[in-house]
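User: I need a structural model of Methyltransferase type 11 from Gloeothece citriformis for a docking pre-check later this week. Nothing fancy, just the predicted structure tokens so I can convert them on my end. Input:
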Amino acid sequence: MEKFNYYDKIAKIYDQTRWLTPSIAEEVVDEIVVLVKATPVTTFLEPGVGTGLNVLPLVKRGYCVTGIDASQEMLAQFRQKLHSIPPNLKLIHADASRLPFSDNSFDVILTVHMLHTVSNWRKFLDEVERVLKPSGFYLNAQWLTPPARKEFEDYFRVILSEYEPLKHSKRVNQTLNNINVDKYLQSKKYRSNYLIAKEWTVTNTVEELLSFFKLRAYGLCWQVPEAIFYSALKDFEEFCCDHYGSLKTELSSTAKFEIWTYSTS
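Assistant: Understood. Predicted structure tokens for Methyltransferase type 11:
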């Protein structure tokens, strides 16, 4: 486990600075339950469970859920959403890229935009295969960033790059480009299916998005020294006033929750 985990730093503001809301998560889970033909005894695992945004609806519906995460603070936020930890939920503080479970332990394994964080994604998928039951489902999912927010972030990246190269971003992009889950799992005789579980509109003012950056809520914001970051942020706020006309301007666009489903049955 890395000594520095920026998720520990942002755990308390994680949910408010993302675009998946509890109500949308409920609708996504509606789709997942149908997709995996869940029964009352279906077991779920989410490596990289974080604050539980993706699986809390499953817990509330009584399904047996296990979550594992490297950030103790993120898990603490998950626990705070519940009056007490119910018997159908198990939370483990550990490296989510290493699965401390016996073979054939779970009916469904869900990962949400986390494969790029593991040191060896092929070995991780081998572990997923090991702990997944033979008739189980592996769901590899992500929330697609709303285009307006993506454009906003890209403008900030340009300004940051004027201070120093964004080496970390390049590494992440290279990692994402090198991950081919479809090809790897199909070589293991898994069948795949793709669907968009939910589309919804996300609206924020420019001022709100700037406030998220000021909180250093994203990995992008931890790439540069503090002095440089806040100088760049001042330049960015001036850019936003000019480009968008007002900090009160609303930016709206469509977010998507997409899922690749893998199974052998």
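Before docking, keep this in mind: The longest strand covers residues 191-205.
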